[in-house]
Write a structure and sequence with these properties.
Layout: E1 8-9, H1 13-20, E2 23-26, E3 30-36, E4 43-47, H2 55-76, E5 81-87, H3 96-111
Parallel strand pairs: 1-4, 4-5
Antiparallel strand pairs: 2-3, 3-5
Helix pairs in contact: 2-3
């Protein structure tokens, strides 16, 4: 794999917020956000919140997601698109082959423009901790 075929890593908060305005495809182990980025190439980012577990669990999930992105984005990723994987509760215990199949399916749905319904913005949140 040549470096030109790979992807660059999202690191700025603004890029993650922009990706949140794009297409959302939910799967049991993760949520994929895909948003066009106006010619900046194929980019990817990973988010795993503290709700998922302690630092060891979160880092393990991020390592698994990085491996999936490294393997699948060059072939299945969308050109000139930001891809963000958000870890979900059961994602770290999920079988790696299932995650791979789910990511390929999610990227296919994103390519076809078949995202999930947008989340309601007026939903009440619980008390802050």
């Amino acid at each position: 794999m040549k470096q030109a075929d790979a992807y660059t890593i999202l690191s700025r908060r603004a890029d993650f917020l922009a990706a949140n305005r794009g297409l959302r495809v939910a799967r049991p182990g993760f949520v994929l956000l895909a948003n066009r980025n106006e010619g900046l190439g194929r980019r990817a980012g990973i988010t795993v919140t503290k709700k998922i577990g302690n630092a060891v669990v979160r880092n393990r999930m991020k390592r698994r997601f990085r491996a999936l992105l490294r393997e699948l984005l060059p072939e299945h990723g969308l050109a000139d698109t930001d891809h963000v994987l958000i870890g979900r509760e059961g994602g770290v215990e999920r079988d790696f082959d299932k995650l791979r199949i789910e990511l390929v399916a999610a990227l296919g749905r994103a390519r076809d423009g078949k995202g999930d319904a947008p989340r309601p913005h007026n939903r009440k949140r619980g008390p802050r901790k």
